Amino acid sequence: MNAGFVGTNSKPEQRLDGEQLHAAYYDYISDVVAPPEKPAALPPKPAPPPEPATIDVSMFKRLSREEIAKDINLLVSDTRAELQRKRRNFARINHPDRAPAEWRDAATTRMMLANHLVDDALRKIRLQRH
User: Fold this and answer.
1) Is the separation of the CB atoms in 107 and 95 below 8 Å?
2) What is the spatial distance between Cα 72 and Cα 89, in angstroms, rounded to a whole number?
């Protein structure tokens, strides 16, 4: 049911304003339904999400094997597990999928070199065991 029945056939000067219409409607149905209580104040809007962290792109300029080995922190004493952990940590920061579009080629180069360096270190560990 809607409030369209109140004043629909009346002349424009006899029509009810919003509050009068509201009162007439609830007066009409007061035996059937109690009028709703005023709604509580709306909760405050949640804070906007934080801005994404800016990426320090200076690392993408470091493309030599020596610089990348230093960034990975490769040590002669690293175990197989340590090398795998270092590779994952390096990839978490330097993977091309996470790099800004303009630095993806450099990130790809860094990841390729890092993988070669870690693979070489793992190969040396394997050869030492035999």
Assistant:
1) yes
2) 8
